Amino acid sequence: MSLIVLDLEWNQSSTGREPEAASLPFEIIEIGAVRLGDGCRMIGEFSELIKPQVYTKMHTYTSKLIHLQMKQLEKGSPFQEVMERFFQWCSREDLICTWGSSDVTELQRNLLFFGLEPIGRGPVPYLDVQKLFSLAYEEDRKIRRNLEYAVDFLKIEKDIPFHRAFSDAYYTAAVLKALVEKDASLLDYISYDVTFPPTGREEEIHARFRNYEKYITRVFPTKEALLSDREVKALPCFVCGKNLRLTIRWFSTNDRHYYAAGVCEKHGYMKGKIRVRHLEGDSVFAVKTTKLTDPTEMRDIEKKHNKTAMLRMRRRQGGSQEDQKS
Predict the structure, then answer these.
(1) How many Cα atoms are found within 13 Å in the side-chain-facing hemisphere of 237?
(2) Is the CB of residue 279 less than 8 Å from the CB of residue 198?
(3) Residues 6 or more apart in contact with residue 224 via CB below 8 angstroms
(4) I need a labelling partner for 158 at 20 to 30 A (CA). Which of 168, 177, 186, 305 fits?
(5) Do the Cβ atoms of 198 and 280 come closer than 8 Å?
């Protein structure tokens, strides 16, 4: 298995009224990739323009960002032919690396739209180099920097322009190499694209990292079935596996995100978060994370819980008063 550092450029509808806009919000118009060998050394490259088949008018923002015109894209090959050559150059089993989380999702969407086999029919592992940079250098690990910021921060030579597929893949590869030289364990922080969520328990993802654990559930027929599942609503310590003594039971701020917190006698404070993801009809799945935390963040979660409980109480009281008036 190789590391394939991938970058995509895409166009979109200029009106939003095309029937394809819902199933293909972004049409890929350029692909650039770098293959990395031992020590993240660059050992191969791939770069092609793609002739648009759906959005044949260049969106103004896209044109300004990547400096490509439609007449240039007319010289490219159809998406199907480019993908055939791309997967001859690499393999669907290679580990994709991207700057950010959107490229793998949009590649999956384009493959499906044009009738091609997706990268995988379940959660697809990949490395989000933008996230890895935050893990390595940001005090607040939720911060996401742009690629040029990371290149400047690491003092990487800027010898080709940004905002083209190959050049951004080239710089992402250079950033990844610098990160691995600093801390090779960053390669353990795998992300997952869930265009195809797990369909059964055997496909579910349990990924444990240095200070948190991620659980991607199978698909459930309803949100009620999801939230009543024993494993989904449990909050064990991801280090030792013991069920936590919950100090804050599961609560929701918007019916999509659920929070809880507890204490492990051996490993300390932990927080849980469930993000419910809706599919067609009523079916859903969820991504649950359990993380080590501290007393300050525990107090923040408690404040959020109390505020949510107060708002719900006010809504119930308001509803009761309306019922009495009627």
Answers:
(1) 15
(2) no
(3) none
(4) 186
(5) no
> Going residue by residue through the chain (326 aa), what tens digit of pLDDT does each one get?
789 999 999 998 877 677 787 889 999 999 999 999 998 999 999 999 999 999 888 777 776 667 777 888 889 999 999 999 999 999 989 999 999 999 999 999 999 999 999 998 899 999 999 999 999 999 887 899 999 999 999 999 998 888 899 999 999 999 999 999 999 999 999 999 999 999 999 999 999 998 899 999 999 999 999 999 999 999 999 999 998 988 999 999 888 999 999 999 999 999 999 999 999 889 999 999 999 999 999 999 999 999 988 888 888 876 555 555 55
Rg (alpha carbons) of the chain, rounded to whole number:
23
Residue 48: strand, helix, or coil:
strand
What sign for the dihedral angle of Cα 59, 60, 66, 70?
A: positive
Residues 168 and 146: beta-carbon distance below 8 Å: no
Q: How far apart are CA 39 and CA 183, in angstroms?
A: 12
Q: Identify whether the C-beta of residue 235 lies closer than 8 Å to the C-beta of residue 260.
A: yes
Domain ranges in the chain are 3-188, 201-313
Which architecture characterizes domain 3-188 according to CATH?
Answer: 2-Layer Sandwich (3.30)
Cα–Cα dist 210/292, whole Å? 10
- At residue 206, φ and ψ (nearest 5 deg) are -120, 100
Q: What angle do CA 251, 138, 208 make, to 5 degrees?
A: 55
Contacts of 1 (CB under 8 A, 6+ apart): 91, 93, 94, 95
Q: By the 8 A CB rule, do 263 and 244 touch?
A: yes
